[in-house]
Amino acid sequence: MTEKIFVERRPKGDYAVRRPTAGRASGVAQTQAEAIDLARKLNPDGPVLVERVRYTSGGKPDKWRKP
């Protein structure tokens, strides 16, 4: 089974690509689209999940989505 890989927005406004068990990012990109492309290259057979912070009707953020 291939491990998931995540695209997270950093406080600086850029995007980090990281694995769940990693202490550091596998890569950093200036845009979300570039980060998604990098994540797909690093993890071609596994799922890529993108951070989405928005409020739903329930009031809680919907945290992760598929690109």
Task: Give a written overview of the molecule.
- This protein is of the alpha+beta class.
- It has one domain (5-65).
- Helices cover 16% and strands 27% of the residues.
- It has one helix at 32-42; strands spanning 5-9, 15-18, 27-29, 48-51, 64-65.
- A five-stranded mixed beta sheet has the order 3-2-1-4-5, with helices on one face.
- It is globular and about 35 Å long.
Helix-strand blueprint:
Blueprint: E1 5-9, E2 15-18, E3 27-29, H1 32-42, E4 48-51, E5 64-65
Parallel strand pairs: 1-4
Antiparallel strand pairs: 1-2, 2-3, 4-5
Main sheet, how many strands, which sense, barrel? Answer: 5 strands, mixed
Query: What structural category arises from helix and sheet content?
Result: alpha+beta
- Note the gap between the termini: 20 Å
The helix-strand sequence is: EEEHEE
Binned, the helix content reads: 10-25%
Anisotropy-based shape = globular
Stretches with pLDDT under 50, minimum 5 residues: none
* Tally of distinct domains: 1
Mean pLDDT: 86
Approximately what portion of the residues adopt beta-strand conformation?
A: 25-35%
C-alpha Rg (nearest Å): 12 Å
Number of strands: 5
